[in-house]
Known about the structure:
Elements: H1 5-23, H2 47-57, H3 74-83, H4 93-96, E1 101-103, E2 113-116, E3 128-134, E4 137-142, E5 147-152, H5 157-162, E6 163-168, H6 207-210, E7 213-217, E8 220-224, E9 239-247, H7 252-260, E10 265-272, E11 275-285, H8 288-301, E12 307-310
Antiparallel strand pairs: 1-6, 2-3, 2-6, 3-4, 4-5, 7-8, 9-11, 9-12, 10-11
Amino acid sequence: MPYFKPMIYLFSSISLLLLxxxxxxxxxxxxxxxxxxxxxxxxxxxxxxxxxxxxxxxxSPYVWAxxxxxxxxxxxxxxxxxxxxxxxxxxxxxxxxxxxxxxxxKDLQYGDLIFFATNKNDHKKITHVGMYxxxxxxxxxxxxxxxVVYSNLFTSPYYxxxxxxxxxxxxxxxxxxVASATPWKRNEALPRVQAQPQPVTxxxxxxQERTPKTTSIGKAIVIKSPMKDIEQRSSQGxxxxxxxxxxxxxxxxxxxxxxxxxxxxxxxxxxxxxxSVSKLLIGPYATKDEARTIVAKVREKxxxxxxxxxxx
Length: 312
């Protein structure tokens, strides 16, 4: 009788796994529901209320042709958030990109929508949309991750190359105080944008100085940035712990603290408006869970506002 116990346990585990997978909706349903469900207006249009929805909806499953309240495709996600505040925008990404106030990348603010051309056969057609959060971060319903996630526009060569247009829909009088978008954990409270200066560094770069230079070519916005040297080329992983951004080099005491704690750092340097800018990264790590473990240690022992950056 004891010989059958391992098999029973294994069967139970497999049954549980199959049950969990069966509960997860299909990313591309066989019979998509193309009817548009207009969201109920539950908020006034301001950035505080957008911030509530951003935190609440992280991790929601991606499902093609859905616009909430539980499942979303990329444009359904943005349609739902703005519709929940009584702001009507088109349902499809390419049409969303035609309305609202057009803005430059350097002028992006929390709540602006950013549009991408992800079709390798058509570099002009808008096929994806996300909502900008600040300091390069944006939230979007990702087909690759199959859920609503955070990504970074400035450290991701994939998104940086495919960005085409940015639009603003919030009224100009909307309150501007919102949380920052440093997404080290999906549902963790995010720190305020107006972060205090880091005590052990020379000078923290203001958010507006971290944005890469941009130029407009016709209707396409091209980001010019020397960040290509941080593209992940090894099999070690795509996740880093970012300790900070600096004008010039980080303080030597900070670098020594990192090595004394047994971590390996990578210093990315590039010119910006006549100044040398540095980004200090620890890693890489193969999984986000591994990076979460490391960032907790880094915050405790080295830098309290360190966060996870995924570089693809």
